[in-house]
Amino acid sequence: MPPETTAAPAQDVIHNIGYRNYAGPRLGRAYARRSLFSQSLRGAYGLGRSAKSKVLPMILFGVMVLPAAIIVAVSVATKMNKLPLEYTRYAILLQAVIGLYIASQAPQSVSRDLRFKTVPLYFSRPIERVDYVAAKFAAMASALFILTATPLLLLYVGALLAKLDFADQTKGFAQGLVSVILLSLLFAGIGLVVAALTPRRGFGVAAVIAVLTISYGAVSTIQGIALAQDNTAAVSWIGLFSPITLVDGVQTAFLSATSAFPGGHGPSAGTGVVYLLVLLALVVGSYGLLMRRYRKVGL
Amino acid sequence: MIATESLSKRFPRVTALDRLSVDIAPGVTGLVGANGAGKSTLIKILLGLSPATEGRAAVLGLDVATEGSAIRERVGYMPEHDCLPPDVSATEFVVHMARMSGLPATAARERTADTLRHVGLYEERYRPMGGYSTGMKQRVKLAQALVHDPQLVLLDEPTNGLDPVGRDEMLGLIRRVHTDFGISVLVTSHLLGELERTCDHVVVIDGGTLLRSSSTSDFTQATGSLAVEVTDTDACPDGVAALHAALTGARLTVQPAGRALDGSPASGRVLLVDVVDEGTYDTVRDAVAELGLGLVRMEQRRHRIAEVFRDEQNGGAPDAA
User: What architecture (CATH level 2) is domain B224-301?
Assistant: First the structure.
């Protein structure tokens, strides 16, 4: 097709070139799904949206990366022989930032479509319900992965610049990446399920924050009590009940991370299997719940 | 374009469609029915989004039960409800919907610019849609249904919420979608009179069953009557009767409207004159003038759905009325 030729020489001249039919390719369902994925992923950082909606995700991204930059600068300057913290520990330390990010972006991803009834329009396109849910889930998980993996990449590059041991650092970096992949999937699932319950964005934000902080607060309080009573087995089991301690448990058991549980009593490999199973069940379960949620949202 | 064969849709408590068989040819087709007549259910089934309980339906020769995705690629849909996010501009929104229909990015942008211009949206298309008037929103909704150059568009109550001028513009636009763009249109409404002006063919459904499917010219013939209301004067104490006699003398078919028109008290003073040709209007005017009566109103009669329903229930075609 010839390029658009409507550039009018003057504002008041409108060239009516008539209707032109479209004879080009129609790329179908898989392409539509990819388009929804990229639009949602860009939207999660405010790209393609108003300037105002870029502010919060970009600030959170900056806050997430800044400590890594400082650590790298200090390590290089003081010629440390290892990084002051493990790759797997980074996301745990900055969990509040990740929580705020998912709380602010999951509702904007799904509640908006529900509130303004854009969902029926999507379903009048070639995509099906499963495509919508998969695209939104993948986009949210990818956005979280970008948020959590970028600082790790920075640490890794910095560690190599500081001439730390290559094999050690690569192994640690890989373990960190696996851990943030699991974390991204889990947080995206929980965030989207909670956000998709309500078409009101404000409720969604509050609900996601509540789910993440209340569960974490409850779990660490009970763990603290258990530790005070020297019940270390309980400490390692109770971590199952909040998202971030679940990730912590999995990486303690399998990714040679140091546990952030009180007293460092993370789960052993055996208990860790349960942690991993629960985590995967939560990811699959939240996908299933989203599919259910959208069954009734057709036209 | 669309063919359904004893299509039924039953929900646990209601039957939305009951053995509906209808064939819709290319062109502009109106789908008329009261609220709850099954219009939206039919559209949902035609888009392949909701399985029919029994019967079959095909759109563009594709089976709705198995080829929904292919149908939706070639069909546009404009919903009745509001569906526009307020914080993005019309351009961004329509480009995104074009890509969701499978258009590559460059083509999506070109087609969006074209389509928005065709529906009459110019500079305002770069502003967030939250500030649009109802008329502009309806245009954007129409644009997103047309942006992928479908072979058929399904428009659900496109004139909802528009003022008379906006309504006329929208109807004109719908007419152009077929005449200028070559896209067939299925448009729903609960106002038959509105569709008469736009559509080639009208399908009336009620309670999920087909009440009537005929070309608009049939309806126009049926509605080709003129309602005339006159006053009495001293010379003619019963103006209506005098006019009745005068017009019958002029070989026109005349009958008192009785309560048939709108049930208002004045309808006893209204005569229904069958329009034979353009000359009929002159004959009526001259007859009124000769008798020296005051002409209160003289209007084209419009059918309302209720009348079609009543006529069908009485077992007669509307032109028997």
Answer: 2-Layer Sandwich (3.30)
